[in-house]
Prior knowledge:
5-stranded mixed β-barrel; single chain; globular; 13 strands
Amino acid sequence: xxxxxxxxxxxxxxxxxxxxxxxxxxxxxxxxxxxxxxxxxxxxxxxxxxxxxxxxxxxxxxxxxxxxxxxxxxxxxxxxxxxxxxxxxxxxxxxxxxxxxxxxxxxxxxxxxxxxxxxxxxxxxxxxxxxxxxxxxxxxxxxxxxxxxxxxxxxxxxxxxxxxxxxxxxxxxxxxxxxxxxxxxxxxxxxxxxxxxxxxxxxxxxxxxxxxxxxxxxxxxxxxxxxxxxxxxxxxxxxxxxxxxxxxxxxxxxxxxxxxxxxxxxxxxxxxxxxxxxxxxxxxxxxxxxxxxxxxxxxxxxxxxxxxxxxxxxxxxxxxxxxxxxxxxxxxxxxx
Length: 336
């Protein structure tokens, strides 16, 4: 039944008054074209510290972003109070497109991925040569996550005064990963920090490693103005240390143009989110050999064309072995 005639106007339409007195909801969101650019330095219980110009600004994520979360390293757009003064709060209204993303899961069966850092250029994998013993499977997993996320790896070996690096270097030699070997004495006198810093200049580098390997000690040497509490004890039975870094934190590199992102020590590095087909792109010398592979080839099966490619002399057999070791790392425990 028609309630109004054919020629109604706005005055004929009844509207309910808004008892709350606020404006009606709309799906149209402001563009915030005048928002300031910033970089997320750390996240703590929903509060994000962002670098805006030369100021550290406290901010919260705007409701309009929904479930999209900002992480350390994100480039963001902010509005509101950008003075950086105490008890002020800005709003993050936009998260810019990311150039890289380092992710992990708690284990290989966990569907929930955790973003470690965004927009990093490099992943420094810190491992001790002794006390605690190196964990090659954990290193392999970090390498897979770096290759998948678009980061270049850097291997940093500490405590060379307790054990030589030869065995570990032989294991990763075919991957052509840049590396630095340090000792406790070199960390104390600054020589180690200078050699590591040469690999970090002009880049954003995330540091990962399990507890007790000296990661935070190294970060303290690289950024002495922002010293973080170092690991005080390594368990003599398990060889594991206590976690002393509880949240990721981006720090400006002292004496060079770059950023260091210190991350909490990890006991595991799950790869449930990794698509194995993307790992092959970290081996450009092997990619052409995959053209003859069957569809959805895992590159570790009987009909894989990479075997013939290597036999014909197009690539080093050690490179194919390294690729397959990394691809198989999800099927092994990190302590193997």
